[in-house]
Amino acid sequence: MTDAIPDAASPEHLTDVLHRAGVLSAGRVTSVAVEMSRQTLISAVMRLRLEVDGQAGAAPLRVFFKTRRMDGPVIAEGVGRAEVDFYSRVAPLTPAGLLPRCFEAVAGAEGRWYLLLEDLGDSHDIVSEWPLPPAVEQCDRIIGAHARFHAFWWDHPGLGRSVGAFLDAGAFDRFLAEFPQQFAAFVDRLGDRMSPERRWVYERLMDGASRLFDERYRPHRNLTLVHGDAHVWNAFYPRDAQSEDVRLIDWDSWRIDVATDDLAYMMAVHWYPERRQRLERERLQRYHGALAGAGVSGYDFDALWRDYRLSVLWQITTPVWQATHGLGAWIWWSHFERIMLAVEDLDCLEFLD
Predict the structure, then answer these.
(1) 7-118 and 125-352: same fold?
(2) For an engineered disulfide with 76, which of 72, 117, 143, 351 has Cβ 3.0 to 4.6 Å away?
(3) What is the mean pLDDT of residues 258-267?
(4) 229 near 265, Cβ under 8 Å?
(5) Which of 60, 64, 71 is nearest to 48 (CA)?
(6) How many C-beta atoms surround the C-beta of residue 214 within 10 A?
(7) In what order do the strands lie in the sheet with 247-248?
(8) CB half-sphere exposure, 346, CA atoms < 13 A
(9) Which CATH number fits domain 7-118: 3.40.50.720, 3.30.200.20, 3.40.640.10, 3.40.50.2000?
């Protein structure tokens, strides 16, 4: 991505957008400069510095511009449009303080899209250097933000109607039809690094997948909106150590699902066994307390623990999906090792008996 200013971030357009958002009460944006430009695996982002004229006491403003990465891996095809939908439909209904403010979300032709977001660079930062996990207190605050988000959308009457879509049997059947081929390619790629015992775990999940889906998901109870990519680096963490103002970012994988999918991805996929065994149950207890404190009822800790273990089992599909869609082994290989150890440690195969 070059440092050329995109048309959607021209002074004229930003003046109009920020007036409508109430950020500018008067005056206009006179110039735009790129302070930061980088590419993630699937998107291109810029931090823009805006000079403003005609507003008393005006200081430079900053906004965050995010758009499609044109030269990314296969996963980048069509990426971003779901995040535009999230900021158009979900974010306006979500309680303040959980998300960055979005000034404009646009999906155009030929897969083009962009977001103009509140810049939080002066008050927030990424919680730790990837892949170093943050401190326990920091993890608790991030998990608390997810709990507040999940609780608000828990069995919300808009789910599957005005907000998102339930995964129907047809879509799940398509997953079941595609996954064996993806897994076969994954096995071929790993060779003898995929043990017969681990291959057997996948085969048992494929055999039992329809039953598990029917039992847990199809009743559409105790479901919520999940992030879908809820590692701790997809959050902006406050620089103020006393603040609870965690903002959840990068919403391209959101969906209606079981809340513990986010927690299993955060901990079982990303934490090595010693840390997970030492910390995960207490983190889940704290999360459950936050849900109850936010008004979620009829869902006790035993139900959450069962859902978490089931989510851990489903997460063995994650490294296969990542490898299939062009992500490097430097991402999915460690995910594969950690999630398989978690399945064994938590006796997740009990669900397949």
Answers:
(1) no
(2) 72
(3) 98
(4) yes
(5) 64
(6) 12
(7) 124-126, 235-238, 247-248
(8) 28
(9) 3.30.200.20
Chain position carrying tokens 């103002």: 245
Secondary structure of residue 112 in the 3-state scheme: coil
- What percentage of the chain carries pLDDT values higher than 70? 95
* Alpha-carbon separation of residue 197 from 73, 128, 176, 194 (angstroms): 31, 35, 21, 8
Domain residues of the chain, as ranges? 7-118, 125-352
Helix/strand/coil for 324: helix
Residue 25 has pLDDT above 90, yes or no: no
The per-residue pLDDT for 323 is 96
Answer yes or no: are the C-beta atoms of 297 and 280 closer than 8 Å.
no
Which helix (H) or strand (E) covers residue 30, if one does?
Answer: strand 28-39
Give 232-256 pLDDT, tens digit per residue.
999 999 999 889 999 999 999 999 9
Residue 139 one-letter amino acid:
C
CA atoms of 96 and 148, how far apart (whole Å): 11
pTM: 0.95
232 close to 146: Cβ distance less than 8 angstroms: no
266: nearest Cα among 280, 281, 251, 252:
280
Read off the tokens for 255. 């969906």
What are the two backbone dihedrals, phi and then psi, of residue 48, each rounded to the nearest 5 degrees? -110, 135
pLDDT tens track for 35-45:
999 988 778 99
Please give the sequence-ordered ranges of beta strands (E in DSSP) within 141-283, or none if there are none. Answer: 224-226, 235-238, 247-248, 255-257
Residue predicted with more confidence, 233 or 71: 233
Q: Which CATH number fits domain 125-352: 1.25.40.10, 3.40.50.970, 1.10.3720.10, 3.90.1200.10?
A: 3.90.1200.10
Residue 90 structure tokens: 């979900």
* Angle, in degrees to the nearest 10, between helices 273-293 and 136-153: 40
- Average pLDDT of the chain is 93
* DSSP structural state of residue 4: P
Residue 351 CA: distances (Å) to CA of 145, 201, 208, 347: 29, 11, 9, 9
C-alpha separations of 284 from 117, 290, 308 in Å:
31, 10, 9
Identity at 201, one-letter amino acid code: V
